[in-house]
């Protein structure tokens, strides 16, 4: 008989946790809701269930305007929102706080739009006043949209969307304000109507706790007026037939994402009807506060450091960490020895350079309790000790105090 017993025992057997910034943990309830035979897609319960999702999606987005569901990921709705609001050759302004701005810009360029970036680096929020100044300089109103990523998942920088709207209004500029809330929806507070976003896009696999495969475009009447002059939108991407469709098939321009719809129904029950969106945001804020307290305590010269220095610019959904030389080692150790999977660093250094090993990210979006946050932080503290990474005080104790409200 062959003896496959590894020499060094791993402590990762038992429950594991996924702490990457999307896809996020799928609750058992959501998985179970999806475990069923294929439904009829012409009449019956699935049709009513789909109708019922729309008001709940709007409740999470905090909008009274239109909501559409696409079968696709974030890239799909990056394209969908632009295709419905622009003509080829239009200029869009992209304030940049990380690589997700670049991703959206590439899609814009592929559609034949002209892209101008306003780069704010990857450690601080967008400077709304600088955006306002650029718009005031645009006296011919060439800029047709400002494309703002609310939380950039690579840097974990969160920007102030309401402040950007205030600057746009003060400049008297008619551009649309389009927000990417892929990472933040259902985690960080976002108020589409009150903050004056004309378009908002998000997906189902992060704060909404549903397997990847559906994404959403929310848009108001101003954005729909821009649809009149859009010249690169095709039938499939057109948001109009998908909004209040005259027959079920038009919701999705074909067969709906049947099982995802059951999953999303369950997730929205949890978020909107059981916990309540305000409480969901509050939970994310307290848990993120515990995580920030831990990292601020661990911080040490030659050791780890939160990427975003200003607490007001930090997201409640994802956290990027700088740990020169040890980032990849720590991630590997936590995964193999403790069963906690942390996220890779993204966009901080060229992928093949040695510096690329100096980062990791923690995803804390969606199905996350104080218990799971403490578990993830405990794994990181154990890794710091095991790998002799320079670190300061007892971060886990600081997190416990934050959760205890002390
Ligand atoms: C995840 C994410 C995307 C891309 O989503 P995909 O589903 O991977 O295409 C876009 N923007 C932000 C801010 C994200 O976090």
Task: Explain how this protein is built.
- The chain has about 400 residues and is α/β, with parallel strands linked by helices.
- The protein folds into 2 domains: about 15-25 and about 275-405, Aspartate Aminotransferase, domain 1 (Alpha-Beta Complex); about 30-275, Type I PLP-dependent aspartate aminotransferase-like (Major domain) (Aspartate Aminotransferase, domain 2, 3-Layer(aba) Sandwich).
- About 40% of the residues lie in helices and about 15% in strands.
- It contains 13 helices and 14 strands.
- The protein has helices spanning about 30-35, 45-60, 75-85, 100-110, 130-135, 160-170, 190-195, 220-225, 260-275, 275-300, 325-340, 370-385, 395-405, and strands spanning about 15-20, 65-70, 90-95, 115-120, 145-150, 150, 155-160, 175-180, 200-205, 215-220, 305, 320, 340-345, 360-365.
- The protein has a 7-stranded mixed sheet with strand order 2-10-9-8-5-3-4, with helices on both faces.
- A hairpin with a 4-residue loop joins strand 6 and strand 7.
- Helix 3 packs across helix 4 and helix 10 (about 275-300) packs antiparallel against helix 13 (about 395-405).
- The longest helix has 22 residues, at about 275-300.
- The termini are far apart.
- Pyridoxal-5'-phosphate binds near residues 149, 153, 180 and 182.
């Amino acid at each position: 008989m062959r003896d496959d017993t590894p020499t060094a025992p791993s402590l990762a057997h038992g429950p594991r946790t996924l702490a990457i910034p999307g896809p996020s943990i799928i609750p058992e309830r959501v998985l179970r809701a999806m475990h069923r035979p294929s439904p009829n897609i012409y009449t019956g319960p699935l049709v009513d269930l789909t109708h019922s999702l729309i008001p709940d999606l709007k409740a999470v987005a905090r909008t009274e305007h239109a909501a559409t569901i696409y079968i696709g990921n974030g890239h799909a709705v990056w394209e969908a929102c632009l295709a419905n609001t622009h003509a080829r050759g239009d200029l869009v302004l992209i304030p940049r706080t990380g690589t997700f701005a670049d991703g959206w810009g590439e899609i814009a360029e592929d559609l034949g739009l002209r892209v101008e970036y306003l780069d704010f680096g990857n450690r601080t929020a967008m400077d709304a006043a600088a955006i306002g100044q650029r718009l005031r300089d645009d006296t011919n109103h060439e800029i047709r949209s400002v494309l703002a990523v609310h939380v950039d998942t690579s840097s974990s920088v969160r920007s102030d969307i309401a402040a950007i709207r205030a600057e746009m209004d003060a400049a008297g500029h008619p551009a649309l304000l389009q927000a990417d809330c892929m990472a933040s929806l259902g985690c960080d507070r976002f108020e589409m109507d009150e903050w004056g976003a004309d378009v908002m896009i998000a997906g189902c696999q992060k704060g909404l706790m549903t397997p990847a495969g559906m994404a959403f475009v929310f848009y108001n009447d101003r954005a729909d007026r821009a649809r009149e002059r859009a010249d690169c939108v095709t039938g499939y991407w057109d948001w109009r037939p998908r909004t209040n469709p005259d027959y079920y098939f038009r919701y999705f321009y074909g067969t709906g994402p049947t099982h995802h719809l059951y999953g999303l129904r369950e997730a929205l029950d949890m978020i909107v009807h059981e916990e309540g969106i305000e409480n969901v945001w509050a939970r994310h804020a307290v848990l993120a506060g515990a995580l920030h307290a831990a990292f601020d305590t661990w911080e040490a010269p030659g050791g780890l450091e939160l990427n975003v220095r200003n607490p007001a610019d930090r997201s409640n959904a994802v956290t990027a960490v700088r740990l020169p030389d040890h980032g990849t080692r720590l991630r590997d150790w936590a995964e193999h020895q403790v069963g906690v999977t942390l996220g890779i660093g993204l966009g901080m250094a060229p992928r093949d350079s040695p510096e690329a090993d100096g980062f990791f990210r923690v995803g804390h979006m969606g199905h996350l309790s104080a218990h799971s946050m403490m578990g993830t932080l405990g794994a990181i503290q154990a890794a710091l000790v095991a790998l002799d990474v320079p670190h300061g005080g007892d971060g886990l104790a600081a997190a416990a105090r934050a959760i205890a409200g002390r």
